[in-house]
Amino acid sequence: MTMFTERGQAAAARRSSRTVVMMAVCVVLAGVLSSCGQEGRNEAVPMSDREENDVPLNAPTLRFHVSTDGQVGASPDLEAEAGEVVAMVLENESDKGYELRLVDPAGNQVFAVDAPAGELGDGRAMPRDVGTHVVSVFPVGRPAAGEEFPVAVSET
User: Fold this and answer.
1) pLDDT digits over 95-112, tens only?
2) Same domain for 6 and 80?
3) For the chain, first and last CA: distance in Å?
4) Residues 6+ apart with CB under 8 A from 96
5) Which of 13, 20, 69, 78 has a CA positioned 20 to 30 A from the CA of residue 27?
């Protein structure tokens, strides 16, 4: 019976030492991982220095407006930077629903939003390609009746 007790105690000692080693590894990894994304000794990266993937607090805004008589207008500064977030706003004062679509130079849809009659439609888009994109604003279900606006997307 002594033989079984000695083996059990030896196995328990090995498990205990493995547990201590694993806990030490976890503590070291937690310290390393908690400092990811920081610069300097104790400072987090300032918002102005963040990478292009991070969403800015005040993204540039492209505004489009549909009047009560169905006339479509756009803000004068239709510019964006590739890889940067841009807010898209469609203000609809008409009695019909309208849709906004952003299409890249290759003709692929990048963003779409609906604005029900008398309401606002908005969201955020991130054009990836440099070049002239096109925003089309049209009554829901009637893309051929829309108006198009070029959006200049430049390199970051």
Assistant:
1) 999 999 999 999 999 899
2) no
3) 76
4) 70, 117, 139, 140
5) 13
